[in-house]
Amino acid sequence: MFLYAPPTGKMKDATVFWHGGRYYVFCMYAKKRTGNDLVDYRNVWSAESDDGVHWRDVGTVIEDAPFPIWAMGVHRAGGRFVLNHGSFGAEGNQNVIRFWESPDLRTWTYTGEKRDLYPDARWHDRQSRLDCMAVLPVAERGRTVYYGYATGPGGFLRSEDGLSWEGLPPPQIDWDGLRPPMAGDEGMLEIGGAECINGRYYLVGGWFNMLGMSGYGTYTLVGESPVGPFRPDPAAYRLCGNSLRWVALWARFCRTDSDVLVNGYLYDGYSYENGRTYLPPLKRAVVDSGGHLRLGYWKGNDALKGDPLDLAAANVLLRHGATPAEHRGAALQLCAGPEANSFARVNLPSAIAVFDLPLSAEQGVVIEGTLQASSREPRVTAPDVGLYLEETPEAGTAILLEGTGRTSIGAVRLGKGLTCEWDDVTGPGCASVKGMIPGRRYAFRLLLRGNMFEMYLDDLLVQTFNTTHTPDAPGRTPQRLGLLVQNGTGVLDELRAWRMTQ
Q1: Ranges of the chain with pLDDT below 70
Q2: Structural domains in the chain, sorted by start
Q3: What is the reported pTM?
Q4: 71 Cβ neighbours under 8 A, 6+ residues apart
């Protein structure tokens, strides 16, 4: 599992909450893997962790509710904890948020129909969508009030005590030339998180068919106050998620005493319909000097490093290319394209070499090192380099960092030649890493378990993804780590690896 899933059943829309030095995950939960979402998602599953990495099951803390329990959020108000979740009203529309209270984050009591929250009729149609609220405590005039940001046109709310809510007119959003992601009763975004960082207010929400891509991504709106106006950040608009598939979704903030973290969830299959859901590693919310929100590596994930795995000592196999790889200790150099002409007469634009040591990826591995792309050949201006996850000697998954400022991930097939079919592309408008600058050395981290992986470059997220390339079944578990180079020289150096702790 990568990193957590209930041992049975099906989870979705996980949220992580921190309190008193402990991490708690809550998620909508169905006892069966298949079935009717409206009937089966009537439970809340929970797990706990002392380090945010290793989770122990608590089980169903809300079970067999008389109504659907969909996406949820947890906040503290006074001496109680409050869980809110989307649900369905009597007419069958997803237009109500229901509330539960707990003294200990384990025992939850439904607050009753009188507390149920529907769209405020002063501003919105009562049957319009209202689903799952991110709650942000804000200091106003010497006291704490609460702002709620929910999915749906009536999803902007305020509370004096964190439990009783009043509707507000929709927050002002200046889309700055961008087409709003939703219309009608859907609202602006499927809001996942709201947080104040360095005095600015960040809303993150998901939707699909954005930036010309059909996949599901999470996007960032930024404001100077909790009531807006909010604006999309054009330089880092897509915070995370995927361009052509539904693999990594959601973004919820989790504030601890020392960090602002972000959690999401991901599938091991091609989409929600045919993949099992998991909780990936927590990430650190990073706001750079320009005020752009990005996702970074959280040092707490170092707890995943167990027994060392000596990849650097393994032999290297050339899977594709015109020249052999140069392998010295922890360094591997590979040439392709015109760069290889001084070694061979064949001009192949790509080359792949792999370390001949099984990864034990079912248990999980953590791999670190450095990557660099360069060229001595003046005709090469944008060499590409990336990691190759070999699944069979003839196929694998590539994470290619392109010199043109783009990151591409997808299937690689070897035969008479080499073909790449990209499943995901990260480029302009994305907060995650977009390619690499030729000649510059970058530090990378790769977390791999089963067919799911997550990569960072200089401790910023590249992508969370999987090796599934067709809808029929989850992708193969990678067997070997390799280096992929296109039109230049690639160097993988300072290689270290560890088996994941359980």
Answers
A1: 1, 183-184, 341-347
A2: 10-280 (2.115.10.20), 305-500 (2.60.120.560)
A3: 0.95
A4: 12, 13, 28, 85, 86, 131, 132, 151, 190
